[in-house]
Amino acid sequence: MMTIRKLLAAAAAILPCISAAADNLTLRAWGEDSILWYDEQTEVYYLSDTPYSAKKEIFTFIKQDGWESRYYTTFLMPSGDVLFVFDTQFEGGTYTEQQIAAPYSVEIDNIHRRNPIVAVASEGYKQYVIDFGDRLKPTGWLQNCGPHYSYRYNALYFAEYTRANLRSCNGWKVSGDLRNPDNWQIKASRMIDFPYKVGTKHFHTAQEDPYTGAMYYTTGDRNAAIYASRDGENFSQLDKDDRAKWRMLNAVFTKDYMWWASDDWRANHHFWRCARGADGVIDPEKIEDLFLFPDFGDGDSKATYGNIYFEKFNAILFLDRWDGGLEKFNDLPVYLYDIDEGKMIHLTDVHRNTVCPTNIPWGFRCRAMEMHPKGDKAVISFDSLHPNDMMLPGNENARTAVRNVVITLRKKGPADYELTFQPL
Fold first, then answer.
1. Would residue 237 count as lying in a domain?
2. What's the total number of domains in the chain?
3. CATH code at position 159
């Protein structure tokens, strides 16, 4: 199959490399062998071969109904096409009591949903609005996780990160021509509970086990569930709802286990692993509770937003966020689990930026996050919707001064590591 790099080589060769400073751009999506960036001020999109190489301008996003591209979740397809799915959480609002009490209808569920957009690489990134008509329109995923392209099934899977202005949340599979709404299929679905926050709120992620081909969707928050498929087509819930176990934003797969830290607080903030059954799907009866993260007492709302697997070290880095804004929580611990040593390590603490308001959440809620770095470095990115509120190098005096951060992990000895952060 022709890679995106080969597909775009001729067109990209005539485009000048950008001269804008890197901190004007935000890493938007990871492709097969290219990286997608955008300038939030100009709506110009760029490609680079790696996070560290020169960037080339490819197109300018055309706003639909006044909505800028930052209000869409974005995916770089293997073809080079750029998919934009409107993120309804940013439109706000909620349903009236009459709408909530009414029987479910696509018409009501569609009130805040919008048609997705695709910029087609082979046509010079011409943008097409994909008209779903009266069908249920998709909404976007959680910014740093939620979509996954499977080469095994030749399909994009993604999980809707919904809020109280929608009636359902869904796990989607998209294959074939993106512009054909017949190719967009819902594979798992839940009704959103009202009042919002008391039960099912949204889906969190879609992931594939590279060892067996099993596909997973997870939901949150309090009614957290996991759905699995052996064939990428038929999904069913594996276990009863359990917010401590199945409320996750992403998982790590190794030869023998699936690993994850929970996106929950205090007594529910655990690190888990689970072995597979004979069918290649994880067996909930084999789940193991490996670590309970420290409880900082009343008001502690520290949850894991990224499980980053450093294959080079066979270790998992956990990046958390303080979900609640309390002035007393100005330090955010960063942990690493060394799989070979079977040991959890407290690497360092990061600190709240002095210009960050003390009444808002802060930490590693990123626009993009490199979950599977190939070496000792991983890149995370922030934008105005998900600002860098941490006292990291170069970011001391502004919330978004440094948008792209390089995390470097160095191993000094058995279960002995050093973690550093630097602007990209």
1. yes
2. 1
3. 2.130.10
Q: What is the pLDDT along the chain (424 residues), one digit of tens a residue?
A: 334 433 333 333 333 333 334 458 999 999 988 999 999 999 999 999 999 999 999 999 999 889 999 999 999 999 999 999 999 999 988 888 888 889 999 999 999 999 999 999 999 999 999 999 999 999 999 988 999 999 999 999 999 999 999 999 999 999 999 999 999 999 999 999 998 888 999 999 999 999 999 999 999 999 999 999 999 999 999 999 999 999 999 999 999 999 999 999 999 999 999 999 999 999 999 999 999 999 999 999 999 999 999 999 999 999 999 999 899 999 999 999 999 999 999 999 999 998 888 999 999 999 999 999 999 999 999 999 999 999 999 988 778 789 999 999 999 999 999 999 999 9
Both structure tokens of 245: 């176990």
